[in-house]
Amino acid sequence: MHPLRILLVDDHALFRKGLAALLRARPGILVLGEAGDGREAVIQARKTCPDVILMDIEMPGCDGLEATRLIKEELPGTRIVMLTVSDDDRDLFEAIKAGAEGYVLKGAEPEELFDVLEALRRGEVRLSGAVASRILMELVKPTPERVDEEPDLSSLTPREVDVLQELVRGSTNREIGETLGIAENTVKIHLRNILQKLHLKNR
Question: How far does Cα 188 stand from its chain's mean position?
């Protein structure tokens, strides 16, 4: 298995060094380097072509959102995960629009970050639990323009909501079944019902 090559971007040197040490202790991960702001991140990304960039948002000069846009334009294959203290919904959705494939709060447990990284290694997108739940609520929240056509969560059973939350996290049918303690075929039935109730064509 090839190591996951990672670039760290954060304006706090102490946090960067601690994160680098944490990642280097994890098998299958190679820390390519560090950057202290968005401009330096763009330069380092050009030089190293990392698989993943762990990017802070609030940085002086060129912030993480702008750096993400610039890097994704030049290196669309590089995955960017925002690693930040900001739980502002505006930052979350701006990061996703800029091209970020992940958003993890700095208060998360290390295993939560490792889960996101391992999902990226497999070519999947997996958000941390708190972030996934907020995206889910935003997606199902009726807007004035769509209030007549979009159902709210009351149209789903409690088990269907459980399945949908796992789906938003990027879980496969088998993983959903293992997490919820139900058969994979039962998961498929729940998914079919969810798609029908939310008027969606596919997962």
Answer: 24
Give the integer Cα–Cα distance in Å for 77 and 67. Answer: 15
pLDDT in tens, 146-201: 444 555 556 788 888 888 888 887 788 889 999 999 998 888 888 888 888 777 76
Give yes or no for a contact between 160 and 184, defined as CB atoms under 8 angstroms apart.
no
Specify the 3-state DSSP secondary structure of 182.
Answer: coil
Check if the beta carbon of residue 170 is closer than 8 Å to that of residue 127.
yes
Residue 17 sits at the vertex; the CA angle it makes with 119 and 22, to the nearest 5 degrees, is 40
Retrieve residue 134's tokens: 């907020």
CA distance linking residue 61 with residue 39, whole number of Å:
8
- CATH architecture of the domain with range 141-197: Orthogonal Bundle (1.10)
How many CA atoms within 13 Å lie on the side-chain side of 193? Answer: 17
Q: Where in the chain is the domain with CATH 1.10.10.10?
A: 141-197
Q: Which of 131, 197, 130, 125 is nearest to 160 (CA)?
A: 197
What stretch(es) of the chain map to CATH 3.40.50.2300?
Answer: 4-127
pTM, to two decimals: 0.68
SS3 9: strand
CATH, range 4-127:
3.40.50.2300
Q: Are strands 102-105 and 29-35 parallel, antiparallel or unpaired?
A: unpaired
Q: Are 89 and 102 in contact (CB under 8 A)?
A: no
